[in-house]
Write a structure and sequence with these properties.
The chain has 87 residues and is an all-beta fold. It has a domain of 38 residues: Pemi-like Protein 1, Chain: D (Ribbon). The chain is 0% helix and 25% strand. The protein contains no helices and four strands. The strands form two sheets. A two-stranded antiparallel ribbon has the order 1-2. A two-stranded antiparallel ribbon has the order 3-4. The radius of gyration is 26 Å and the shape is elongated. The termini are far apart. 0% of the residues are buried. One of its GO terms (molecular function) is DNA binding. This is SpoVT-AbrB domain-containing protein. InterPro entries: SpoVT-AbrB_dom (IPR007159), SpoVT-AbrB_sf (IPR037914).
């Protein structure tokens, strides 16, 4: 179910700004994408970069998990010469 909020436009320096209600849950400094279509405005968060997951803190808490030895991986020779586009 969607909520409806009122927001106020005000002057900030030489620009206009839109004061958004705190109830929207946005964080200060969040980058947003704004679209205008036929006089209607929509905004949405810009995709944030993917964060890496660090599992080093929990690795010892799962003793049943063992790392795979390197020799378990297939390291077959590759025919790199087939990629030569000039020849």
């Amino acid at each position: 179910m969607s909520e409806e909020y009122k927001a106020k436009v005000f002057k900030s320096g030489n620009s206009l700004a839109l004061r958004l209600p705190k109830a929207l849950g946005l964080e200060e400094g969040a980058e947003m994408r704004l679209r205008e279509e036929h006089g209607r405005f929509t905004f949405e968060p810009v995709d944030a970069p993917k964060r890496k997951i660090d599992l080093t803190g929990i690795a010892g808490s799962m003793p049943w998990l063992k790392p795979l030895p390197r020799e378990d991986f297939d390291d077959s020779p590759r025919d790199w010469h087939l990629l030569d586009r000039d020849g």
